[in-house]
Known about the structure:
Helix 3 runs antiparallel to helix 4 (196-208). The chain is globular. The chain is built from 4 helices and 11 strands. It has one domain (6-208): Nucleoside Triphosphate Pyrophosphohydrolase. The longest helix is centred in the C-terminal third of the chain and has 13 residues, at 196-208. By secondary structure, the protein is of the alpha+beta class. The strands form 2 sheets. Strands 3, 4, 5, 6, 7, 8, 9, 10 and 11 form a 9-stranded mixed beta sheet that branches. The chain has a two-stranded antiparallel sheet with strand order 1-2.
Amino acid sequence: MPAQEMFDIFDADMHPTGQVVEKASAHEQGLWHQVFHCWIVRALEDGDAAVLFQMRSRTKSTYAGLLDISAAGHLSAGETPEDGIRELEEELGITAKPDELVSIGIQKINTGTTGYPNREFCHTFILERHEKPEEYILQPEEVDGVFEMRLSDAFGLFSGEEEKVRVRGVARMMGKMVPAEKDVTLKDFVPHFDRYYLKIMIMIELHLAGSRYLAI
Protein backbone atom coordinates (compact mmCIF):
# COMPACT_ATOMS: atom_id res chain seq x y z
CA MET A 1 0.00 0.00 0.00
CA PRO A 2 1.51 3.38 -1.03
CA ALA A 3 2.53 5.78 1.70
CA GLN A 4 -0.08 8.38 2.57
CA GLU A 5 0.79 11.94 1.60
CA MET A 6 1.50 14.15 4.60
CA PHE A 7 0.50 17.82 4.99
CA ASP A 8 1.79 20.65 7.14
CA ILE A 9 -1.17 22.11 9.05
CA PHE A 10 -1.93 25.80 9.67
CA ASP A 11 -4.45 27.85 11.59
CA ALA A 12 -6.96 30.12 9.83
CA ASP A 13 -4.42 32.98 9.81
CA MET A 14 -1.83 30.76 8.09
CA HIS A 15 0.35 30.32 11.15
CA PRO A 16 1.97 26.84 11.24
CA THR A 17 0.55 24.69 14.02
CA GLY A 18 3.46 22.25 13.98
CA GLN A 19 1.13 19.39 13.08
CA VAL A 20 1.90 17.04 10.20
CA VAL A 21 -1.20 15.09 9.22
CA GLU A 22 -2.11 12.51 6.58
CA LYS A 23 -3.96 13.88 3.56
CA ALA A 24 -7.18 11.98 4.24
CA SER A 25 -7.29 13.10 7.86
CA ALA A 26 -6.58 16.72 6.93
CA HIS A 27 -9.57 16.71 4.59
CA GLU A 28 -11.87 14.80 6.91
CA GLN A 29 -11.12 17.16 9.80
CA GLY A 30 -11.18 20.31 7.69
CA LEU A 31 -7.62 21.31 8.61
CA TRP A 32 -5.93 24.19 6.83
CA HIS A 33 -3.22 23.10 4.38
CA GLN A 34 -1.41 24.42 1.29
CA VAL A 35 -1.90 23.89 -2.42
CA PHE A 36 -0.24 25.07 -5.63
CA HIS A 37 -2.17 26.74 -8.47
CA CYS A 38 -0.47 27.55 -11.78
CA TRP A 39 -2.19 29.37 -14.63
CA ILE A 40 -0.54 28.95 -18.03
CA VAL A 41 -0.96 31.61 -20.70
CA ARG A 42 0.25 31.72 -24.31
CA ALA A 43 0.61 34.91 -26.34
CA LEU A 44 -1.30 34.96 -29.64
CA GLU A 45 -0.21 36.66 -32.86
CA ASP A 46 -3.26 38.92 -32.92
CA GLY A 47 -2.35 40.51 -29.58
CA ASP A 48 -4.78 38.45 -27.51
CA ALA A 49 -3.68 35.60 -25.26
CA ALA A 50 -4.84 32.03 -24.67
CA VAL A 51 -5.40 30.74 -21.14
CA LEU A 52 -4.98 27.00 -20.60
CA PHE A 53 -7.58 24.99 -18.67
CA GLN A 54 -7.20 21.33 -17.86
CA MET A 55 -10.15 18.97 -18.05
CA ARG A 56 -10.19 16.76 -14.99
CA SER A 57 -10.25 13.02 -15.55
CA ARG A 58 -13.74 11.64 -16.00
CA THR A 59 -12.88 9.04 -13.35
CA LYS A 60 -12.13 11.57 -10.59
CA SER A 61 -14.23 11.32 -7.44
CA THR A 62 -14.89 15.07 -7.45
CA TYR A 63 -15.66 17.39 -10.36
CA ALA A 64 -15.04 14.67 -12.94
CA GLY A 65 -14.74 15.99 -16.48
CA LEU A 66 -14.93 19.67 -15.49
CA LEU A 67 -12.48 22.36 -16.57
CA ASP A 68 -10.10 23.73 -13.94
CA ILE A 69 -6.76 25.42 -13.29
CA SER A 70 -3.97 24.68 -15.80
CA ALA A 71 -2.04 22.68 -13.18
CA ALA A 72 -2.61 22.33 -9.45
CA GLY A 73 -1.85 20.07 -6.53
CA HIS A 74 -1.29 19.80 -2.81
CA LEU A 75 1.98 20.79 -1.18
CA SER A 76 3.39 17.98 0.94
CA ALA A 77 4.93 18.49 4.37
CA GLY A 78 8.14 20.48 4.16
CA GLU A 79 7.54 21.75 0.62
CA THR A 80 7.65 25.41 -0.40
CA PRO A 81 5.12 26.95 -2.79
CA GLU A 82 7.70 26.80 -5.59
CA ASP A 83 8.05 23.04 -5.07
CA GLY A 84 4.58 22.74 -6.55
CA ILE A 85 6.21 23.23 -9.93
CA ARG A 86 6.47 19.42 -10.07
CA GLU A 87 2.74 19.41 -10.88
CA LEU A 88 3.56 20.86 -14.30
CA GLU A 89 5.66 17.85 -15.21
CA GLU A 90 3.32 15.31 -13.60
CA GLU A 91 0.09 16.63 -15.13
CA LEU A 92 1.21 18.33 -18.37
CA GLY A 93 4.62 16.85 -19.16
CA ILE A 94 6.50 20.16 -19.14
CA THR A 95 9.34 21.48 -17.01
CA ALA A 96 9.81 25.01 -15.72
CA LYS A 97 12.14 26.86 -13.40
CA PRO A 98 10.93 28.49 -10.18
CA ASP A 99 12.03 31.91 -11.40
CA GLU A 100 9.65 31.58 -14.36
CA LEU A 101 6.67 31.54 -11.99
CA VAL A 102 4.99 34.89 -11.38
CA SER A 103 3.36 34.96 -7.96
CA ILE A 104 -0.03 36.66 -7.72
CA GLY A 105 -0.65 35.85 -4.07
CA ILE A 106 -2.58 33.39 -1.95
CA GLN A 107 -6.26 32.54 -2.37
CA LYS A 108 -7.93 31.36 0.83
CA ILE A 109 -10.56 28.66 0.18
CA ASN A 110 -13.02 27.41 2.77
CA THR A 111 -15.80 25.34 1.22
CA GLY A 112 -17.82 22.19 1.71
CA THR A 113 -18.73 21.55 -1.91
CA THR A 114 -16.63 18.37 -2.08
CA GLY A 115 -18.58 16.69 0.73
CA TYR A 116 -16.05 17.57 3.42
CA PRO A 117 -14.78 20.88 4.86
CA ASN A 118 -12.00 21.83 2.43
CA ARG A 119 -9.74 24.55 3.83
CA GLU A 120 -6.78 25.52 1.66
CA PHE A 121 -4.23 28.29 1.21
CA CYS A 122 -3.69 28.37 -2.55
CA HIS A 123 -0.31 29.74 -3.64
CA THR A 124 -1.16 31.05 -7.09
CA PHE A 125 1.15 31.70 -10.04
CA ILE A 126 1.12 32.71 -13.69
CA LEU A 127 3.42 30.99 -16.18
CA GLU A 128 3.95 32.06 -19.78
CA ARG A 129 4.54 29.19 -22.21
CA HIS A 130 4.60 28.69 -25.96
CA GLU A 131 3.17 25.14 -26.18
CA LYS A 132 -0.12 24.53 -27.94
CA PRO A 133 -2.63 22.08 -26.42
CA GLU A 134 -1.56 19.16 -28.59
CA GLU A 135 2.04 19.48 -27.37
CA TYR A 136 1.31 18.66 -23.74
CA ILE A 137 1.78 15.12 -22.41
CA LEU A 138 -1.17 14.59 -20.10
CA GLN A 139 -1.24 12.39 -17.00
CA PRO A 140 -3.92 9.74 -17.69
CA GLU A 141 -5.02 9.38 -14.07
CA GLU A 142 -5.58 13.11 -13.59
CA VAL A 143 -6.19 14.88 -16.90
CA ASP A 144 -8.50 14.00 -19.80
CA GLY A 145 -7.75 17.04 -21.91
CA VAL A 146 -6.55 20.63 -22.10
CA PHE A 147 -8.39 23.52 -23.69
CA GLU A 148 -7.41 27.10 -24.46
CA MET A 149 -9.75 30.03 -24.02
CA ARG A 150 -8.99 33.43 -25.47
CA LEU A 151 -8.42 35.93 -22.66
CA SER A 152 -10.95 38.31 -24.22
CA ASP A 153 -13.55 35.53 -24.18
CA ALA A 154 -12.64 34.63 -20.59
CA PHE A 155 -13.49 38.15 -19.46
CA GLY A 156 -16.87 37.86 -21.13
CA LEU A 157 -17.67 34.49 -19.59
CA PHE A 158 -16.41 35.01 -16.04
CA SER A 159 -17.86 38.52 -15.78
CA GLY A 160 -21.28 37.19 -16.76
CA GLU A 161 -21.48 39.28 -19.93
CA GLU A 162 -21.42 36.13 -22.08
CA GLU A 163 -23.35 32.94 -21.36
CA LYS A 164 -21.02 30.71 -23.36
CA VAL A 165 -17.72 30.89 -25.24
CA ARG A 166 -15.72 28.61 -27.51
CA VAL A 167 -12.67 26.68 -26.30
CA ARG A 168 -10.26 24.62 -28.38
CA GLY A 169 -7.76 21.96 -27.44
CA VAL A 170 -7.41 18.19 -27.15
CA ALA A 171 -9.39 15.55 -25.26
CA ARG A 172 -8.89 11.89 -24.50
CA MET A 173 -11.16 9.69 -26.61
CA MET A 174 -10.84 5.89 -26.64
CA GLY A 175 -7.43 6.18 -25.00
CA LYS A 176 -6.06 8.69 -27.52
CA MET A 177 -5.75 12.47 -27.53
CA VAL A 178 -7.72 14.02 -30.37
CA PRO A 179 -8.40 17.64 -31.39
CA ALA A 180 -11.54 19.02 -29.79
CA GLU A 181 -13.51 22.23 -29.51
CA LYS A 182 -16.75 23.05 -27.79
CA ASP A 183 -18.91 25.79 -26.36
CA VAL A 184 -18.68 26.06 -22.56
CA THR A 185 -20.69 27.80 -19.86
CA LEU A 186 -19.86 28.41 -16.20
CA LYS A 187 -21.34 25.00 -15.39
CA ASP A 188 -18.45 23.37 -17.26
CA PHE A 189 -15.90 24.64 -14.71
CA VAL A 190 -14.98 23.50 -11.21
CA PRO A 191 -16.78 25.95 -8.91
CA HIS A 192 -14.59 28.57 -7.27
CA PHE A 193 -15.90 31.36 -5.10
CA ASP A 194 -15.36 35.11 -4.76
CA ARG A 195 -15.12 35.50 -8.57
CA TYR A 196 -11.82 33.63 -8.52
CA TYR A 197 -11.70 33.02 -12.27
CA LEU A 198 -12.39 36.65 -13.10
CA LYS A 199 -9.70 37.85 -10.69
CA ILE A 200 -7.22 35.46 -12.30
CA MET A 201 -8.00 36.86 -15.76
CA ILE A 202 -7.49 40.40 -14.47
CA MET A 203 -4.10 39.42 -13.05
CA ILE A 204 -3.10 37.74 -16.32
CA GLU A 205 -4.03 40.86 -18.27
CA LEU A 206 -2.04 43.08 -15.90
CA HIS A 207 0.94 40.74 -16.06
CA LEU A 208 0.95 40.71 -19.86
CA ALA A 209 0.77 44.51 -19.82
CA GLY A 210 3.97 44.59 -17.78
CA SER A 211 2.63 45.36 -14.32
CA ARG A 212 4.86 44.28 -11.42
CA TYR A 213 2.10 44.73 -8.84
CA LEU A 214 -0.15 41.69 -8.82
CA ALA A 215 -2.32 40.30 -6.04
CA ILE A 216 -5.55 38.30 -6.07
